[in-house]
Write a structure and sequence with these properties.
This protein is an alpha/beta fold and about 150 residues long. It is built from 6 helices and 5 strands. It has a 5-stranded mixed sheet.
Length: about 150
């Protein structure tokens, strides 16, 4: 009688234990992935970057940034045309860079990844842009502001 009860308890607890282990493992992996991908920008860094962009551009100007917070807070348009990249997001960005002027690029973790995925953007940034400002302010990464070089002075 006791053996049958132990077997019944084991049959009930074993699937629950397996489910618990799988659930905890999935939750742990999910948290680590979010933690690795989510930049942590301080309010001071956001204000400094967006203020610089706002002071050095006009309301209709486009900037290029991976995290939309920079364009939103500076009240400028993002040449990336997205809030979160979707499939084939590089083509519209490359097309915009070919056809229009982008005066500033905000380099954060997301922008670095996007540029690294495109030979065209990598070459364009290296050839046509210069570093004008770096902002740390306790943020997860150092944010760099690149400005398009002028043909005469550069």
């Amino acid at each position: 009688m006791i053996i049958k009860n132990r077997a019944r308890v084991a049959m009930i607890l074993l699937p629950l234990a397996i489910f618990g282990i799988v659930y905890i493992s999935f939750f742990t992996v999910s948290l680590s992935a979010v933690k690795a991908e989510t930049p942590r920008y301080t309010q001071e860094a956001i204000e400094e970057v967006s203020s610089y962009i706002k002071e050095n551009t006009n309301p209709g100007d486009f900037i290029f940034c991976g995290s939309p917070i920079w364009a939103y807070m500076a009240e400028r348009n993002n040449a990336g045309f997205y809030s979160h990249p979707v499939k084939d997001y590089l083509q519209p960005i490359e097309k915009y860079f070919r056809e229009h002027e982008v005066k500033y690029i905000i380099i954060d973790g997301k922008t670095q990844k996007i540029i690294a995925e495109s030979d065209f953007l990598t070459e364009r940034v290296d050839a046509d842009y210069k570093l004008v400002k770096e902002v740390r302010k306790g943020s997860y990464v150092t944010i760099q502001i690149l400005e398009k070089k002028t043909r005469i002075s550069e």
